[in-house]
Amino acid sequence: MKLTAVDIPMKKILLLLLTLYLFSNQAFAQKTLMVEKVGSSRKYFYHTGDYLKLRISKQDTLLQGKLWSIRDSVISVAELRPFDVRLCDINALYKRFAFPRKFGIYMCIGSGVFFGIITVNHLINNEQVFTPDMFILSGSMLGAGLISIGLSEKKCRTGRWKIKVLNINVKK
After folding, report:
1. What is the percentage of the chain residues whose pLDDT exceeds 70?
2. In angstroms, what CA-CA distances link 103 with 96, 114, 141, 154?
3. Domain limits of the chain?
4. Which of 21, 43, 20, 31 is nearest to 171 (CA)?
5. DSSP class of 171
6. What does the alpha-carbon distance between residue 55 and residue 93 come to, in Å, rounded to a whole number?
7. What's the pLDDT score for residue 23?
8. pTM of the model
9. Residue ranges of the chain with pLDDT lower than 70?
10. Rounded CA separation 77/67 (Å)
């Protein structure tokens, strides 16, 4: 007796396709590094290739670079050569916020441009070149920019923050 496609019940074909789909979905699993605050809903996620800055407790060193790889209990951070770090050795992780950093950089550049424009204006009009209002305006812009750059990173110490490795399935 020969079986053809007509003889196989549709339920078996659907069950076969469903199991193939579920097993092939595991091939797209990717590991994610999650940093969450204990007792709060704040969470930050890092994937392979993201910028990472952390302090290692045993060597008391500051390590920064791209997240090279994520394994179960070890991550690799690299600028040129990957450096393996165990999760239990991490003392603090620094979260970078893009908007305050860009704002601070633009304010610093803007203060230099503003200072230059006022200087050229005073030279063209044959006035005193350096006046107090020029230093007050450009200095306050520079100060706001430097404060914004300083506040663009948040230190997440491992006492209050937990670091976990998650397996996340990416569905396409």
Report:
1. 86
2. 13, 16, 11, 16
3. 29-96+154-169, 99-150
4. 21
5. P
6. 6
7. 64
8. 0.66
9. 1-8, 18, 20-29, 168-172
10. 5
